[in-house]
Amino acid sequence: MAERDFVELIEDVSHSPLWNHDLAPTPLARRTWSTYHIAALWIGMSVVITTYTLASGLMAQGMNWWQAMLTILLGNVVVLIPMMLNAHAGTKYGISFPVLCRASYGVTGAKVPAILRALVACGWFGIQTWIGGLALNTLLVAAWPGWSSVAIGTWMTFAIFWAVQVWLIVHGLEGIKKLEGWSAPLLLLGGVALLAWAARRGGGLVHVLSESSRLQTGHTPFWRLFPSALTANVGYWATLSLNIPDFTRYAQSQRSQALGQALGLPATMTAFAFIGVAVTSATVVVFGEAIWNPVDLIARIGSAPVVMFGAIIVMLAQLTTNMAANVVSPANDFSSLAPKRISYVAGGLITAAIGILMMPWKLYSDAAAFIFTWLIGYSSLMGAIGGVLIADYWVLRRQQLTLADLFKVDGRYSYRNGVNWRAMAATTVAVMPVVPGFLRAAVTPGGQVPDPTWFDSFYTYAWFVTFAVGFVVYLMLSQKPQEGRA
To answer: Global pTM?
Structure first.
């Protein structure tokens, strides 16, 4: 362990209203996540149905299989950069995302990016829970065919899967580390098994990929589709590029977090999306129709034991992704709103409740709308916040924070009434150019790719636009770190 990578809290600030045990900096004794743990975290989060079907929306609009793969790979390489930059503070200071936000937004102003990040996570939690419920429904039908006649069977399995996750929330973050560690190899094995089935039943991988052209139902030219598709793929993990300190606060070193992320994210996302394309192309050969949802496919290709095993793998994939990507961050974020009253567990339970209220079955009902409205839309918010955080930590402060003051209402991060107006202004200005395009995309049937008009072009590049504007405007307003009550 490289001690110079770390800064420990030596001042007692436990009396502060900004402090609780869950938000407190991680002590050295608990920074035990190795390169493997970080990589396994990303494998567990990436191997999920929404990754498997990620290429479907792109190919439905007109991309071929290799164009979709290239877009997905490039998007994940791009988002890896801010991911590593924001991860640095988590590892060095042992702090979570909402605590890091206090340095740039102020100890009170930090609640704004925290709640924006939390609400996006609630939407994702609901989507992954809905998909997990569908997998559980398939499992029950395979074990007991009579279940298919239950009128509200899908809703019941959705409720059961939700309840299982609530049970896991109550058992905290260490359980997530163990879950990701032992499930990652099993999830990869499940993906390889599907690919092997596709190659065997589809007449070889080359033949399968040659049939993938039958999945292209749209005719949008590649270079018109590429910008918004790339932005959507950056947006897929734009949320984690902000709250990655929630995990890297437990890393053994900067090398562990950086190498683990580099090994675990781009390759896994692209490989599992490729498996989705190859296997779906094979279904065209074998069944004469494209079956994008792996849950539906598993139900058609095996006996009851095979179906049950496959459904368990799918549910495990949903659990590992949801518990890590869509519970840890909002749990911390909601806790940061009132640290003395809301614990990590309470924050997780709030996430689970809001996730249902956001009606995830509607968010996930249309692949194109999912990509071009949901993913691009929230990526604009995440880009603006990311631009401010990175400008503040890397350019203005040069990775130097006063750890104790992050928990003081009258410390150097109190600014004026706890709010840094410069960060707020930069975030607002950054988002404004993409709002017209988002509103237009939101009311366009089927999530149609926006026409390249002036404002729609801003929306097409939403994450890139808001990140760059937020970064530049914040630096222009802050010639030096604006601390204290300035």
So the answer is: 0.88
